[in-house]
């Protein structure tokens, strides 16, 4: 075998390695740029939610019209008036400020006979049953102000337990099942929830204003990670080439 035949594989190897480095570098930079784009999107979303929560409440009919056309109703401030059907409240297992208990979802019967499920707020575990908080069972006409919350399309995850309708414990907010479990006609139920604001209830229960906007925003950290890996790759390759050049010059 000639010296030329020996040299050919050695020339091809650096070229192949260089191509792999360029591909890896392009992937890392692309991932970092994507995270920056996600960062701007998330910041815009959070600003939009904050603006919705700070806005003046609108009538329930306005939110209904928006929902009917496929608009985004989430976290929009709304007001509704009706009578609470206290004996049909549903209980959603929750934790509030480190305490275990339930969010109380009570049907609010509107003037036209339809029903709106209102998350009136949190009660500790020992106050799950209505007779443990009778002062908070409002019986006359009520006007509630709160945030519209979209109906879930399905169970959020397989790790979430199934709802225990018999015990009236819900682990995910299945509006249709909530309505069916108390004999309400789904066609006469408003197709979204309302989380009541922090207006105090008699004897302090339920505790309103429990809406949590939990949207992690770690995209800047991820962007630094990807761009950092790209920089490390450049440094490693540069040092490798420098050392090879120095070695070749010394021979």
How is this structure best described in words?
- The chain crosses the membrane at residues 12-34, 224-242.
- InterPro entries: Surf1/Shy1 (IPR002994), Surf1/Surf4 (IPR045214).
- Its main location: membrane.
- With 251 residues, the chain is of the alpha+beta class.
- It has 2 domains: 24-57 and 216-243; 76-196, no CATH class.
- It is built from 4 helices and 7 strands.
- It has helices at residues 3-54, 60-68, 175-181, 219-250, and strands at 58-59, 77-84, 90-96, 99-109, 115-124, 142-150, 189-196.
- It has a 5-stranded mixed β-barrel with strand order 2-4-5-7-6.
- Strand 4 and strand 5 (115-124) form a beta hairpin.
- The longest helix has 52 residues, at 3-54.
- The protein is elongated and about 95 Å long.
- It starts with a helix and ends with a helix.
- The mean pLDDT is 90.
Task: Provide tags for this entry.
transmembrane, 5-stranded mixed barrel, SURF1-like protein, cell membrane, 251 residues, membrane, alpha+beta, Surf1/Surf4
> How many domains make up the coordinates?
2
* Cα separation of the termini: 23 Å
Order of helix and strand elements from N to C terminus: HEHEEEEEHEH
Sheet-strand content, in percent, reads 15-25%
Share of helix, binned: 25-40%
Largest sheet: 5 strands, mixed, barrel
Report low-confidence residues grouped into runs of 5 or more.
none
Order of strands in the sheet with the most strands? 2-4-5-7-6
Using only C-alpha atoms, the radius of gyration works out to: 29 Å
What value does the average pLDDT take? 90
Structural class: alpha+beta
């Amino acid at each position: 075998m000639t010296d030329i035949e020996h040299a050919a594989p050695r020339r091809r190897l650096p070229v192949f390695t260089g191509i792999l480095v360029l591909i890896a570098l392009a992937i890392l930079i692309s991932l970092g740029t994507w995270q920056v784009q996600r960062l701007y999107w998330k910041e815009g979303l959070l600003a939009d939610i904050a603006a919705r929560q700070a806005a003046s409440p609108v009538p329930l009919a306005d939110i209904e019209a928006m929902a009917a056309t496929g608009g985004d109703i989430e976290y929009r401030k709304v007001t509704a008036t009706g009578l609470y059907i206290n004996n049909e409240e549903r209980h959603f297992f929750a934790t509030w400020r480190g305490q275990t208990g339930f969010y109380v979802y009570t049907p609010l019967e509107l003037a036209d006979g339809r029903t709106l499920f209102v998350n009136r707020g949190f009660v500790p575990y020992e106050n799950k049953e209505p007779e443990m908080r009778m002062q908070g069972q409002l019986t006359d006409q009520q006007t509630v102000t709160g945030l519209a919350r979209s109906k879930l399309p399905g169970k959020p995850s397989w790790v979430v337990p199934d709802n225990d309708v018999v015990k009236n414990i819900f682990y995910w907010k299945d509006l249709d099942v909530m309505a069916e479990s108390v004999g309400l006609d789904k066609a006469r139920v408003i197709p979204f929830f309302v989380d009541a604001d922090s207006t105090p209830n008699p004897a302090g229960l339920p505790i309103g204003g429990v809406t949590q906007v939990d949207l992690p925003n770690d995209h800047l950290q991820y962007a630094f990670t990807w761009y950092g890996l790209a920089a490390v790759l450049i440094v490693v390759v540069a040092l490798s080439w420098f050392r090879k050049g120095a070695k070749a010059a010394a021979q």
